[in-house]
Amino acid sequence: MIGDLAFGPVGIIDIGSNSVRLVVYGGSERVPSILFNEKVMAGLGRSLGTDGTMDEEAMAMALDALARFRVIAKMMRVKRLRTVATAAVRDASNGPDFLYAVAKMGLKPALLSGEEEAVASALGVLSAIPWAKGVVADLGGGSLELAGVARGHVGAVSSEPLGVLRVGDPPDAELIAAKLAHALEGGELARAAKGEGLYLVGGSFRAIAQLDMRSSHHPLPIAHQHRLDPARLPELAALAEEWGADRLKSEANISSQRVPHLSAGIAILTALVGLLSPERIIISADGLREGLLYQDLSAEARKHDPLLAAALEVGRQLGRFGDLGARLDQWIAPLFTADGQHKARLRLATCLLGDIAWNAHPDYRAERAVDLALHGNWVGIDAKGRALIGRALYTAFGGNGGFDPRIEALLSERNVARAEGWGRAIRLAMRLSGGVDRILRQSSIRRDGGAVVLSLPEAQYRLYGPAVQKRHDQLASALSLEAKVRFS
Q: Is the pLDDT score of 58 beyond 90?
């Protein structure tokens, strides 16, 4: 069900048109954890539009960063270090000279074609959002990569020289739209997003998401899987102009390096939406680098659910007695047969995290569990899913009446009640079993008419002490049922 093969540390150096970055990954191979992440905004693509070369200052800055990255990777004992270069190096007349300099310092740079870059970015999205269907758009400094995705596979791809460094300042919206229309005319990509999704990759698109969330006072401003309303784009374009650099940094949490290119990103996105007519726009935190890692996985490993794989890893690290989560979910599942596939998946993730805060101070266990649920580096889940898991864990760890109302407002009344029920059931299971698998295997719980019936072996009747009975009663009350216990 869930892949947990440990790997790493492995590193990827991404030499882009705007930034040069080293990311080192560890953890599980299906959902790698970021151990180290550093970028330098070298701006290799700044001068391409004028003379077709990368300027000396930008190359010197990039080479200095790469020399540091090589030392860092060596000190971290990185097992495998992959170095890739994209649009700026690909298009510059002095690109081969730059790659030679990179190779001389001991790195082995691979120059990705535009099509290879588009495929890798699309695979990164599929790694994090396996059900993605539509078009992936990866916006960098020097190029825009587009790829069709459906049923876990990548279809038609395209790479266009329309990065944020190449569309003018201020950006020429009509020229951008005309170039994109010409590039897409008559191709599969022109139809792939119609009525489906447009999945956005890249720092400039994430900056737009940050502006959208912060300006609308979103209670959980995490960019990954944020859904962007296309009707908001004109307002966001106006805000990008009105707020100015200082306010965009302080209130929208946009880095100073991204602020100058925000208007260009909005102009490119507006043109894409007009041409592709997507039903929804979704931000993806994962892209090219994660796609390169995903390419290395076996077909079987790719099938593993990324949310559940990550929750399993965290649950094993922080739980008392290893992996109890799957057993816990099996135990409480008979109470929640109406959950459906999507909610059952989130319930399993909740159970996998059901013991993560046991070693916190008793007064703050609920808060710690909620913080991990809401702010963990999860993929395969949106803000509402985070809120549902957080609300359930809040109850499971003894929280009562103090859950953030802004976060709870993301949930319907029905889902608040569902989360309360999950939490009460997990809380009962943990008290009954002490977090031990064997006791859950010997007992069961189910709905029977108007009752929540807990069944225990007669020889284990002492397990049903006052503390267990209290939690049994609380669970039954949350489900508007009566608590009953049976010994057999």
A: yes
Pair (272, 144) in one structural domain: yes
Per DSSP, what are the bridge partners of residue 278? 194
Does residue 3 surpass a pLDDT of 80? Answer: no
Picking from 111, 145, 176, the residue at the C-terminal end of a domain is 111
| Residue 445 counted as domain residue | no
Report the greatest alpha carbon distance in the chain. Answer: 84
Same domain, 160 and 189: yes
CA neighbor of 439 nearest in space, from 447, 427, 448, 431: 431
Full residue range of the structural domain in which residue 180 is found: 115-289
pTM of the model: 0.92
pLDDT tens digits for 294-340? 999 999 999 999 999 999 999 988 888 877 899 999 999 999 999 99
In sequence order, what are the residues at sequence separation of 6 or more whose Cβ sits closer than 8 angstroms to the Cβ of residue 435?
319, 320, 321, 324, 355, 358
For residues 263 and 240, is the Cβ–Cβ distance under 8 A? Answer: yes
Token code pair at residue 404: 């953030």
